[in-house]
Design a protein that fits this description.
This protein has about 425 residues and is of the alpha/beta class. The protein is about 35% helix and about 15% strand. The strands form four sheets. Strands 1, 4, 5, 6, 7, 8, 11, 12 and 13 form a nine-stranded mixed β-sheet that branches. Helix 10 runs parallel beside helix 11. The N terminus is likely disordered.
């Protein structure tokens, strides 16, 4: 019996007939696949419209003329403009019934990136910070949490510490700035020795305060990074011209290509931002322009990861902080909509080729099979082999905080 046959049989029959030992053995048999080890977040800052992306309701008054196209998975449609992603739908799962209580940009961003609502007593870590804190460090000399084309509210380490903040870079088209010494090696080494003298003098009778800043550790990490061969992972110009063209000649396309290169050298989380989705005015025009960047980059990333056998080891999440209102306002725009929006998940061994949940085309009824942001975080953590219920203690308050308060979406993790 193949592993797929076993999975189907156990799913149909359940595990109730097994003894506790037999149930454990069955679960271990089904969990033999190695967990994912990285996350790529395609962050659509501003809140994309679900109707012009992953949940079109073509032909309704709310569509405003948006058309739908068929995909490689029968019964799943995408909005027009996603022709390349449509071919990759067998590797993607859509959640069309996302619900959140945060309809403000800053609060919604915090919610989607951390899995928690903002709380004045604690700053929660983003999903990337959690990955770096919980997963093995490995042999990566460069930062393991990276943000490309960082938006207004970058991903932070929160109570886990500033060392887990995302390392921010701009368009990877050019060389990474500030990583090469501007002076000869001998002079550079003398400067390092002089700095050490100053540091040791300053730390006298201030050891606790100096240690708390992680100043020495930060300097050491930076020096190691400056001489690391892994810096080449930022340089997308080393890729063949035809592959760069597949991702698209845009900062976002280059960012997605850099994300793949960074994952290859052991980076745990790469966030690539595509800004500008806040379409209170001219919603359709704004989405047409941005989809022209998102579609080729997202599709090429999936193809590239799969070709390099990295897709099962990498969870790809594509989302913004909320969706847009079904009703089109007098300015031709859509307003904030945190109830019944969409996101896409791929890789990480998650089930693919499915669409979870439904939204009412008349925007009257609540979404069918609603999914919370917390549940998405729990699902990603589970795919990474982490226990969402594990607790870390927030140092300032002494409060134990779970990695996630959600529950993994069983239909996605088998």
């Amino acid at each position: 019996m193949t592993s797929l046959d076993r999975r189907a049989f156990l799913s149909l029959a359940g595990l109730s007939w097994l003894t506790p030992v037999g149930r454990l053995l069955a679960q271990q048999s089904e969990s033999s696949r190695e967990p994912a080890r990285s996350v790529i977040l395609l962050w659509l800052a501003g809140g994309p419209s679900q109707l012009e992306t992953f949940d079109p309701h073509a032909g309704t008054s709310f569509a405003g003329g948006t058309k739908a196209i068929e995909t490689a998975v029968k019964g799943i449609q995408l909005a027009s403009g996603f022709e390349q992603l449509a071919d990759q739908m067998g590797s993607v799962s859509l959640i069309r019934s996302m619900i959140s209580k945060e309809g403000d940009h800053e609060r919604g961003t915090y919610m989607l990136k951390t899995g928690y609502r903002p709380d004045p007593t604690v700053v929660h870590p983003s999903i990337g910070a959690v990955c770096c804190h919980e997963l093995p460090v490995g042999t990566t000399d460069i930062p393991r949490h990276i943000s490309i084309l960082t938006g207004q509210w970058p991903s932070r380490g929160g109570f886990l510490g500033g060392e887990f903040d995302a390392f921010q870079i701009d368009d990877p088209k050019g060389k990474l700035p500030d990583v090469a010494s501007q002076v000869a090696a001998v002079r550079d080494q003398r400067r390092v020795l002089d700095l050490d003298v100053v540091d040791r003098a300053f730390s006298l009778r201030r050891k606790a305060r100096v240690d708390a800043t992680l100043h020495r550790e930060t300097i050491a990490s930076a020096r190691t990074m400056m001489t690391s061969e892994q810096l080449k992972a930022f340089d997308v110009s080393q890729e063949p011209a035809n592959l760069r063209a597949e991702y698209g000649d845009s900062p976002f396309g280059r960012g997605c290509l850099a994300a793949r290169r960074l994952i290859e050298v052991g980076v745990r989380c790469v966030e690539v931002t595509l800004n500008g989705w806040d379409s209170h005015v001219n919603n359709h025009e704004i989405h047409r322009k941005l989809v022209k960047q998102l579609d080729p980059a997202f599709a090429a990333l999936l193809r590239d990861l799969r070709a390099r056998k990295l897709l099962d080891r990498t969870v790809v999440l594509c989302c913004g902080e909320f969706g847009r209102s079904p009703k089109i306002n007098p300015l031709g725009g859509r307003d904030h909509w945190p109830t019944g929006f969409s996101l896409a998940l791929a890789g990480g061994g998650l089930r693919s080729g499915v669409a979870i949940g439904e939204t009412d085309p008349e925007a009257v009824k609540d979404p069918v099979d609603p999914t919370t942001v917390q549940d998405v975080h729990a699902t990603i953590l589970t795919a990474l082999g982490l226990n969402p219920l594990k607790e870390n203690v927030a140092p300032l308050t002494g409060r134990p905080m779970k990695l996630s308060e959600g529950r993994a979406i069983r239909s996605l993790i088998g």
